[in-house]
Design a protein that fits this description.
By secondary structure, this protein is of the alpha/beta class. The protein is 33% helix and 24% strand. Strand 6, helix 5 and strand 7 form a beta-alpha-beta unit. Helix 4 crosses helix 5, helix 11 crosses helix 12 and helix 11 runs antiparallel to helix 14. This is Shikimate dehydrogenase.
């Protein structure tokens, strides 16, 4: 794995001292470069010298010219290889970039780079992706540009709703990696989180190892990247994303995936599983084999709950695991869907709805114990909702997560 510089972009809402504080926080968390763009900040919004004292400053020309004080303080100056009248920058400072308006073939991409580039310039090529399979084209383009300019100078990036895993794969041969600090603002669609990238670079033992990852929606809280071997990617997709095409395109590059809400049932069907829902994919040569290690989590939760009769709120992928384990153990399990809730609920329950899904307004508990299988901040939010509705929450999400993750790790070690 070649050494890459991790770049964070200054959000447009931060100026002055707040901008410097953002840079310091990024440096502490492992960023290498702070980027300032002319479409996000006016000349007087920032003190370029103050930012450059924190870490190297990348100044990027986007529509408006780069102010001279920015150039003077900069480590590199990003200018578009096609749009700029010239690519003027002090010696050793040019980052020549091209931002394509649509997906390109490798031949088309190389034509965009026919203009002579100074030998000390870095090269950055960015394309929107028209689907997960476009990763193969980007890899081909990356190899061709590296051959032309030298691998240490080249960065190729994908953009769009399915670009996160593509960026992870491309990063192994990129000189620069643009990352998101987290929170609601990102500089471009498809950026990986800084914390995940830093973790990979610090802990990955084999630079050529197949990657692992977690597929889901709204998963910034997931602990999986922290406990599994690296490289492990957090692949956050929209609920309607083509997850089937994503896993097929990533088969050559990944040893396996953890699968979470809302893709457990869709990928069970896609992989031909006999189970209604799965949470683990393992590479077997030219195909995916699917498993549901949630049964280990369900077993841990039902044992902690210690009840003979259990009811479940929700009927998603987690509920399928609870059904299997309760049948093994001879427990009575009742699944209650949203439309079936009427009177206040009593007894022992398991809440399986993700915290992003609002519970029915008429849901009330009366003397009920309710197991929460979410963990972290989402688990705490669910617990607060249970208390508000009169129930007693039991935070068992960590027990579920650890039990199923242990089994996932064993399965991924068998990947071929």
């Amino acid at each position: 794995m070649m050494a890459t510089r991790r770049i964070i972009t200054l959000p447009p809402s931060l100026t002055g001292a707040d901008a410097v504080a953002f840079a310091r926080d990024g440096l502490k968390r492992g960023a290498d470069v702070i980027e300032v763009r002319t479409d996000l900040h006016a000349p007087g919004d920032i003190d370029p010298d103050a930012l450059a004292r924190v870490m190297p400053l990348l100044v990027s020309e986007r529509g408006k010219p780069v102010p001279a004080p920015w150039v003077q303080a900069s480590w590199r100056v990003d200018r578009d290889v096609e749009r700029a009248q010239d690519m003027d920058a002090p010696p050793g400072k040019l980052l020549a970039s091209h931002h394509a308006e649509g997906p390109l073939t490798t031949t088309e991409a190389l034509k965009r780079w026919s203009r002579p580039i100074p030998p000390d310039a870095l090269v950055k090529h960015v394309e929107p992706m028209d689907g997960p399979a476009h990763l193969d084209v980007l890899l081909e383009t990356q190899a061709a540009l590296s051959q032309r300019f030298g691998a240490e100078r080249v960065t190729v990036l994908g953009m769009g709703p399915v670009a996160i895993p593509a960026r992870a794969v491309l990063s192994r041969r990129n000189g620069l990696e643009y990352v998101a600090m987290g929170g609601p603002w990102t500089a471009a669609p498809g950026q990986r989180l800084l914390d995940d990238v830093v973790r990979e670079h610090r802990k990955a033992k084999d630079p050529h190892a197949l990657r692992l990852g977690i597929l889901g929606t709204a998963i910034p809280h997931s602990r999986s990247p922290r406990i599994h071997r690296q490289p492990f990617d957090r692949i956050d997709l929209a609920e309607d994303a083509p997850v089937e095409a994503v896993v097929d395109a990533l088969l050559p590059h990944y040893a396996g995936f953890a699968v979470t809400s809302p893709f457990k049932m869709r990928l069970a069907k896609h992989t031909g599983s006999q189970l209604d829902a799965i949470n683990t994919l393992v590479r077997r040569g030219s195909r995916w084999e699917s498993f549901n290690t949630d049964t280990e989590g369900a077993r841990a939760v039902l044992e902690r709950l210690g009840a003979k009769d259990v009811a479940v709120l929700g009927d998603g992928g987690s509920t399928q695991a609870l059904r299997l384990v309760s049948a093994e153990q001879g427990l009575a399990l009742r699944v209650v869907k949203r439309a079936e809730i009427q009177a206040p609920l009593s007894g022992d329950w398991v809440w399986t709805w993700p915290d992003r899904v609002a519970a029915p307004e008429n849901l009330r508990f009366q003397g009920a114990r309710v197991a929460v299988i979410a963990y972290g901040a989402p688990g705490r939010r669910v617990a607060a909702e249970i208390v508000r509705r009169g129930g007693t929450p039991l935070l068992l999400g960590a027990a579920w997560f650890v039990a199923q993750a242990r089994r996932q790790r064993q399965l991924w070690e068998t990947a071929t």
